[in-house]
């Protein structure tokens, strides 16, 4: 009995070790897993983590069965089959898809943190329908035909828009709606139509306001939610089976949409790295967005980040605290290249002495909080594989802009732009943004902003600099007060000189 148990444990350890080793002997990075959001985090605002239009993956399907939309997904499955038939002489057979997904079932289930007591048949059905829904919506799966010369071309189609109820409303959400429609028209949400083709009535119908709101909901549910995901390997495999000779990988279509979402919101610069330098494939669509959030400081040589030395840091000060310590806030633009350029909102920079804090502009709309919360949830579930860069930035902003006065100051400096009702509403969202998140600000591995915090804290603790900053703001902000102060100083100096000469003349 004991020897049998020991052998089973040895086999388990051997399998675990082999799965974490590369072919060349190097340690493989841990995989990104799809996990449920912790209750401590979820309870702050549950609506930020649940779908409102469509459920994707086993987590959401079991909790929100009314949003499964299997009828819509069956239509998308038929569209994928039709597109594959028009593209290739060998039609896509459902049997082949099911067999391939069955072969992948074990690895797909391992992409989730929890086990699901779901029969294999039902689980494979979910995967196939969800993958086709995502492919038609964002993967440029349209009716592809072969030209006589063998080149591909795309016939007219509209995808990325699925009917359903609307949950988006409110004055401050119009900015997000306007941006998203512009992105989808350009980057695949509304797929290209040939100039010589007339506009179909369905296209005109989908240009309505209801259609726009539904488009926002689809993008939000499919891209932004940490629990509402399926592994990208499923989507990619169905695409490969449907279009085996396609010269465009499935990832490229999704990357274009991700680049558009991040670029148009000015929170990350779209970048494209060609193979073989391309980063590992995304684990899911939220991870695809997260891959763009990597501070440039981490790309520098080891040791340039500051390490773990220096003074211990606690919480950040507020923007007003730094302001009265003489720190100047400056908007740092995002650039597409160049030495020292900011490529995402995470690239916060401070001058050598801590006198100027350069922060990339954060444009806030109705969906900003949802995106940040779910990106942090991804990091909290995968601290080693995903890091904690977004969490560090959110902690930084939540403490920097924790009051309406702080938000007003940062808005005047161009660091924050928002379309919400007032500054207090923005400050309230920031104050609750990181509740429940596990984060150690004094750990250099977790907090990439630790060197920035140390410089600012050193300046804040300097009594001389704080006194000089107070003097400058109190007396030199108004030019007349400055002139009066200079005149008073000159008068004081003249009085002292006169007194000295009077004493000297008396002694003589």
From TrEMBL:
<dbReference type="Pfam" id="PF03140">
    <property type="entry name" value="DUF247"/>
</dbReference>
<keyword id="KW-1133">Transmembrane helix</keyword>
<protein>
    <submittedName>
        <fullName>Uncharacterized protein</fullName>
    </submittedName>
</protein>
<keyword id="KW-0812">Transmembrane</keyword>
<dbReference type="InterPro" id="IPR004158">
    <property type="entry name" value="DUF247_pln"/>
</dbReference>
<feature type="transmembrane region" description="Helical">
    <location>
        <begin position="475"/>
        <end position="501"/>
    </location>
</feature>
<keyword id="KW-0472">Membrane</keyword>
């Amino acid at each position: 009995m004991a020897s049998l148990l020991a052998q089973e444990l040895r086999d388990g350890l051997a399998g675990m070790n082999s799965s974490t080793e590369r072919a060349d002997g190097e340690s493989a990075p841990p995989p990104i897993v799809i996990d449920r959001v912790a209750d401590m985090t979820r309870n702050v605002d549950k609506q930020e983590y649940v779908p409102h239009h469509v459920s994707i993956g086993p987590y959401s399907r079991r909790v929100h069965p009314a949003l499964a939309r299997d009828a819509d997904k069956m239509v998308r499955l038929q569209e994928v089959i039709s597109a594959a038939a028009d593209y290739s002489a060998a039609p896509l057979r459902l049997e082949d898809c099911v067999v391939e997904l069955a072969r992948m079932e074990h690895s797909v289930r391992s992409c989730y943190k929890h086990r699901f007591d779901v029969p294999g048949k039902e689980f494979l059905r979910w995967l196939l329908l969800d993958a086709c829904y995502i492919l038609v919506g964002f993967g440029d799966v349209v009716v592809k035909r072969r030209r006589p010369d063998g080149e591909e071309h795309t016939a007219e189609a509209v995808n990325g828009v699925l009917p359903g109820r609307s949950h988006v409303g409110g004055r401050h959400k119009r900015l997000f709606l306007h941006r998203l429609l512009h992105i989808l028209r350009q980057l695949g949400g509304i797929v290209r139509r040939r100039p010589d083709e007339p506009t179909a009535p369905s296209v005109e119908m989908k240009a309505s306001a209801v259609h726009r709101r539904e488009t926002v909901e689809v993008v939000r549910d499919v891209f932004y939610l940490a629990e509402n995901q399926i592994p990208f390997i499923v989507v990619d495999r169905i695409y490969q089976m449907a279009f085996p000779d396609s010269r465009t990988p499935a990832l490229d279509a999704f990357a274009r949409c991700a680049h558009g979402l991040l670029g148009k919101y000015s929170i990350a610069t779209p970048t494209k790295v060609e193979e073989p330098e391309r980063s590992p494939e995304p684990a899911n669509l939220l991870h695809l967005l997260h891959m763009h959030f990597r501070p440039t400081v981490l790309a520098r040589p080891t040791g340039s980040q500051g390490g773990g030395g220096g003074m211990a840091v606690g919480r950040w000060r507020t923007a007003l605290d730094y302001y009265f310590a003489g720190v100047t806030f400056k908007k740092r633009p995002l650039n597409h290249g160049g030495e020292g350029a900011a490529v995402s909102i995470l690239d916060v920079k401070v001058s050598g002495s801590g006198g100027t804090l350069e922060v990339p502009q954060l444009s806030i709309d109705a969906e900003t909080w949802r995106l940040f919360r779910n990106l942090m949830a991804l990091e909290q579930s995968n601290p080693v594989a995903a890091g904690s860069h977004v969490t560090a930035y959110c902690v930084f902003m939540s403490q920097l802009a924790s009051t309406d006065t702080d938000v007003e100051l940062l808005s005047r400096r161009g660091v924050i732009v928002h379309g919400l009702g007032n500054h207090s509403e923005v400050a309230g969202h920031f104050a609750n943004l990181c509740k429940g998140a596990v984060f150690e600000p004094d750990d250099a591995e977790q907090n990439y902003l630790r060197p920035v915090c140390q410089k600012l804290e050193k300046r804040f603790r300097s009594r001389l600099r704080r006194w000089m900053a107070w003097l400058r703001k109190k007396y030199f902000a108004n030019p007349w007060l400055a002139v009066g102060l200079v005149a008073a100083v000159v008068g004081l100096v003249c009085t002292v000189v006169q007194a000295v000469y009077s004493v000297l003349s008396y002694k003589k």
